[in-house]
Design goal:
alpha+beta; Immunoglobulin-like; four-stranded antiparallel sheet; 1 helix; 16% helix; elongated
Length: 155
C-alpha cells in the first residue's frame, strides 16, 4: 500500500510539473525597446535602437523619437529582434523618449537618457559647458629617469 501511495504521489507531481512547464512555454515575453548605442559615423552621429521579444506575425511600426521617425530593419539571424538606426548631426544628444507600436500596443524605450553627452564627430572636441564629452579612452603614462621627465599618451 505504501508503494502504491508513493507511486500515485509521484505521478501527480509529474503531471503538475508538466502543466507548469507548458504554461511557462506559452507565456509570451513583453517586447522591450532599448537605446543600444550612440556613436560617431564619419562627421555625423549614428543612433541605434533594438526592439526584442517580438513574435513572428506581430505588426511592428516605425520608431518615433525627438529627431524623427525610423523604419524597422529585421535581422534574419535573430528571429525576435528588430533594429532601428538613424544618423543625425554632431552635437549634444539626450534621448529621453522613443516608442514603437507592436500589435496596437505602444512600447516605450526602457533606458531614457542612456548614452547622453556631446558627440562631436570629425571635428575638434569643444565641449558644452558642464557636460561630459565622449572621447576615445586614453591613459597618460609618466616615464621618468634620473635626469628627465617624459610624458607619453597610450591608447
Amino acid at each position: 500500500m505504501k508503494t502504491l501511495t508513493t507511486l500515485l504521489i509521484a505521478v501527480l507531481l509529474l503531471a503538475t510539473l508538466g502543466q507548469l512547464a507548458a504554461q511557462a512555454q506559452g507565456a509570451k515575453a513583453e517586447p522591450i525597446l532599448t537605446l543600444s548605442a550612440i556613436k560617431c559615423a564619419g562627421n555625423q552621429v549614428s543612433i541605434q535602437f533594438i526592439l526584442r521579444n517580438v513574435s513572428s506575425g506581430d505588426k511592428v511600426s516605425e520608431l518615433v523619437y525627438k529627431y524623427g521617425k525610423i523604419p524597422p530593419a529585421k535581422n534574419d539571424s535573430i528571429a525576435d529582434t528588430y533594429y532601428y538606426v538613424d544618423t543625425v548631426a554632431s552635437g549634444y544628444l539626450d534621448i529621453e523618449e522613443a516608442y514603437v507600436v507592436v500589435d496596437n500596443s505602444k512600447v516605450h524605450m526602457s533606458n531614457p537618457g542612456a548614452h547622453k553627452g556631446d558627440y562631436v564627430c570629425g571635428k575638434s572636441l569643444v565641449p558644452s559647458p558642464g557636460l561630459p564629452v565622449k572621447r576615445p579612452d586614453t591613459q597618460v603614462k609618466f616615464i621618468s629617469t634620473s635626469n628627465e621627465l617624459r610624458i607619453g599618451t597610450v591608447r
